Amino acid sequence: MLENEVMGMKVENPLFLAAGILGTTASSMRMVVKNGAGGIVTKSFSIEANDGYENPTIVKIEGGVINSVGLASPGVEAKREELKELTPIRSKTPVVASIYGNTADVFIDVAKKTQDYVDAFELNVSCPHAKCGYGSNIGEDPDLTYEIVKSVKDEIDNVPIIVKLTPNVTDITEIAVASQKAKADGLTLINSVGPGLRIDYKTGRPILNNKFGGIAGPMIKPIALKCVYQTYEKVDIPIMGVGGIKTYKDALEFLYAGASLLQIGTSIMYDGPGIFKTITDDLKNFLVENEYDSIKDIIGLSHRI
């Protein structure tokens, strides 16, 4: 009932681990799968190891968090070894590698080094707190996004390419259409909102070491839903919805808006990895109670009523 095939990936349920939460080591990703995740998106990585920003890198706010990790990663060689360990789970649970770079050549190099161990790539061109030349420095420009995606697609033709977009633009559908023209296989909407700031009321100093960070969690759900809804009407490629999903009702809203797959990240910090099983059980019960035959019946429902 929750099974589907999207971008060539067969999933038992639509809930993927989002990049950035528990996606660093093979053991943590396997643990998430045991708790019911239908798929995995790794933490973003690139060619070289990157220490990211110094702590503190995350702070809670009402309705979510502000984080500024700075794309910390162990580098492609170390990450490849972690991905190899996930081979046994890939027959039932797709593994998507989130990768980043500041040029097309870097994206291509990372993809070529890891393409045998993943089921798709998610191009992170949308991190709002990345250092110069990375993340949203690319994804805010439709022409640059097109060039990056097309270059990767020209070189990597056997693994689906998903583009993760930033909401921090005037019109996200413009970037989405540019990605589709570049032959992207799918889109992830959205990355963090912001950057935002929180200040310690006692000292008057910004709490995060980097001062500013991306805003994530339930408070950004309305923005994410709007982006998914608008983009669904403009493109013909699948959408992975992410941003504040905490319950099956949140998941339903994203599915109705047009997302075929979903990602959960920040909510794990509040409810633990068991959130995957809770939401999938509740989704299945909802479909049965409302006499739907398949989850496919409700994808994009809001556009048909």
Structural overview:
The chain has 305 residues and is an alpha/beta fold. The chain has a single domain (4-50, 70-193, 215-303), classed as Aldolase class I (TIM Barrel, Alpha-Beta Barrel), CATH 3.20.20. It has helices at residues 26-34, 76-84, 104-114, 136-139, 142-155, 172-181, 221-232, 248-257, 267-271, 275-289, and strands spanning 4-6, 9-11, 15-17, 39-41, 58-61, 64-67, 95-99, 120-124, 161-165, 186-189, 193-197, 212-216, 239-242, 261-264. The strands form three sheets. It has an eight-stranded parallel beta barrel with strand order 3-4-7-8-9-10-13-14, surrounded by six helices. The protein has a four-stranded antiparallel beta sheet with strand order 5-6-12-11, with no helix packed on it. Helix 8 links the parallel strand 13 and strand 14 (261-264). Helix 8 packs across helix 10. The longest helix is centred in the C-terminal third of the chain and has 15 residues, at 275-289. The radius of gyration is 18 Å and the shape is globular.
Could you write a compact summary of the structure shown?
By secondary structure, the protein is of the alpha/beta class. It is 32% helix and 19% strand. α7 (221-232) packs parallel to α8 (248-257).
Mean pLDDT: 94
List the uncertain runs.
Answer: none
* Share in β-strands: 15-25%
- Termini gap: 22 Å
What is the domain total for the residues?
Answer: 1
Describe the biggest sheet? 8 strands, parallel, barrel
The CATH architecture designation is Alpha-Beta Barrel
Protein traits:
TIM Barrel, 10 helices, 305 residues, alpha/beta
